[in-house]
Amino acid sequence: MTTPTPHTVFNPPAEPVARDPHWAAKMARLRARTLPEQTLVICDDPEVRERLDAAKAEAARCRAVDAAAGQQDCKETRRAETEVDKAQEEFDAVALKLTSRALPRPVLDGLIKQFPPTEQQAEAGDLWNPEAFPAALIAAAHVERDPSGQPVEGMTPAEAQELLDAWPISESNMLFQAAWQAQQLTRASTVELGKG
Q1: Is 9 helix (H, G, I), strand (E, B) or coil?
Q2: How many CB atoms are located within 10 Å of the residue 182 CB?
Q3: Which residues contact 193 (CB under 8 A, 6 or more apart)?
Q4: What are 100-116's pLDDT values in tens digits?
Q5: Do 84 and 56 contact (CB within 8 A), yes or no?
Q6: Which of 8, 75, 91, 173 is buried most, with the most CB atoms less than 10 Å from its CB?
């Protein structure tokens, strides 16, 4: 009686796989991906905000009228779109933007571990210390760029905590949510193959 030979799994040699130009090109693209970002826009001038909203609404109305009439690029629509551009420039001149970037998974995991909930907070269902983690996340995720677009020194945890403490609760929550949502953004989807 012969003993059966164990089933062997074929693994292709690593060197030819590494030299495969198709895979190497795909892996290079995967490595070069930038991390997603989320921007919180703050405009304290209600008149500027209202002018932009009104200009956008008027441009949308003009485009709808054009579409209903089967026309395009009408004089009134061009004028309305010029007003949107002017209102947007005025808005951009007074608005403040705070951009948060997704952190690599090990960095986010380490940050969460650095600020564990107290026993009482854990019993309340918190996954991290809600007194310390928000400012740390905001500072870690914050991306600041100079006018040319180059990254520069950004917000510190102490500055983030200062804003969280000084702003009203709704805006403090939005500041934290912008940083947290940046961690949740996804640009990937799955495709089910072999159907239909």
Answers
A1: coil
A2: 23
A3: none
A4: 999 999 999 999 999 99
A5: yes
A6: 91
